[in-house]
Design a protein that fits this description.
The protein is α+β, with helices and mostly antiparallel strands. The protein contains 15 helices and 5 strands. Helices cover 63% and strands 8% of the residues. Strands 2-3-1-4-5 form a 5-stranded mixed sheet, with helices on both faces.
């Protein structure tokens, strides 16, 4: 039966964003496609403030290194760490922040940079505490707070970074035999700060994820036909212009299908508008199941007419799919006693397979499918007519006939 197999009905069209909202996300992770979309959105929304970290850190480290050189305090391990590890990492993080397609790499580098800076701060604070300057401990608290709240890291990255920094300081306080009261105080304070930071970071990301899903669902609702769930005519117009340009660049074939329900006005008059709406939804469901690949597109033109655009070479679809759609609609067995064509509701399908090039316009390609649909109507309906790329076109006869019969 071709690549698409046997078409089945009885499944509901759902947005992956609506599905995710319904399933919930207590563990702050979405399904793969939705998660990728969210991480890109999250990185971009926090980009400006998070970019301050590498900029300020680079400036601070360079100033500290200059001061050490001027004062003659040459600490080779520190200079080596800063020059070989920390500064290059911060520079790459800053570069990645300006690359929208590298958002995952950027967030990983940001977390790694925050971890390196945290280790650097912990090292300074630990050495200061060993000579009685325990008030430097405030720098560790401040950095843990920054990691949780100000960098815009996803919760799991922030948790990993903050807990490693905190654990390293606590380990150092025990290893270097800090005073008992000081160790207990610093450990308790770090536990409290991490607890509060984790709660706030979790709640913030949860709220952002929920808002992201809501905005996506609302955006998709604006693009969809309210009755059938397929894309609406405005979305179709935007999509077809974009996909036509892409197919010309990639020299990829497009298959246009125009699908019209036979004698639908008679059906509505006989069975009522509610039955008509149910029939439209059932037919739309069959059509939506045929748009299975990322660049395939199904839309409702309005009334009882639908469009299905398939992207790719003809041999990937064959000529079986339009016939499968026609058979699947008839197999719904929606009774239509007033139809002169069949006892059940049927559709007529016009198909045009085109290779976009300089000699073929987008409007001409759509007219080819339009002409094929008109021919299917003329030949008795409940059938498929396919127009080859070199078919002769008489523009818009079907639509003109419909308007005239109005």
């Amino acid at each position: 039966m071709g690549q698409y197999g046997t078409l089945k009905t009885g499944q509901n069209f759902n947005s992956p964003f609506a599905d995710q909202r319904q399933k919930g996300f207590r563990w702050l992770i979405f399904s793969e496609f939705v998660e990728e979309e969210f991480l890109q959105y999250y990185a971009q929304s926090n980009e400006q403030r998070a970019r301050l970290l590498p900029v300020l850190a680079i400036i601070t480290i360079l100033v500290s290194m200059v001061v050490m050189l001027v004062e003659g305090r040459m600490n080779l391990p520190v200079i080596g760490f800063n020059g070989v590890v920390l500064l290059p990492t911060l520079a790459v993080t800053l570069w990645a922040s300006a690359q929208p397609r590298r958002h995952r790499l950027y967030q990983l580098l940001l977390a790694f940079s925050a971890l390196l800076i945290g280790m650097w701060v912990t090292s300074i604070v630990t050495r200061a505490s060993m000579i009685g300057m325990s008030y430097y401990f405030a720098a560790v608290i401040a950095w843990v707070f920054i990691v949780w709240e100000l960098l815009g890291l996803p919760f799991r990255y922030a948790a990993f970074t903050a807990l490693i920094v905190s654990g390293t300081y606590i380990f150092g306080s025990f290893a270097w035999n800090f005073q008992g009261n000081e160790t207990i105080f610093s450990t308790t304070l770090l536990v409290l700060v991490n607890g509060i930071g984790a709660y706030c970071c979790y709640q913030l990301e949860y709220t952002v994820r929920r808002s992201f899903l809501e905005s996506k669902v609302l955006g998709q609702l604006a693009e969809r036909d309210g009755l059938t769930g397929l894309y609406n005519r405005r979305s179709y117009d935007e999509y077809i212009a974009r996909i036509w340009r892409q197919s010309r660049r990639e020299q990829a074939q497009l298959t246009f299908m125009l699908i019209d329900i036979d004698h639908f006005k008679t059906f509505n008059d006989q069975y009522g508008h509610q039955a008509g709406d149910d029939a439209l939804k059932a037919v739309a469901e069959v059509i939506s199941l045929s748009a299975q690949r990322p660049l395939d597109f199904a839309a409702r033109f309005g009334g009882e007419e639908f469009a299905l655009i398939l992207y790719g070479p003809a041999h990937e679809y064959g000529r079986e799919l339009p016939g499968q759609i026609r058979e699947a609609v008839r197999n719904l067995k929606i009774v239509h006693k007033q139809s002169p064509t069949d006892q059940y509701l049927t559709v007529s399908i016009g198909v045009a397979m085109v290779m976009p090039d300089a000699k073929r316009s987008m409007a001409g390609a759509i007219q080819m499918a339009d002409e094929a649909l008109y021919q299917a109507k003329e030949e008795g309906r409940n059938r498929v007519v396919v127009n080859a790329p070199d078919a002769h076109i008489q523009t818009g006869r079907f639509r003109a006939a419909r308007q005239a019969s109005g």
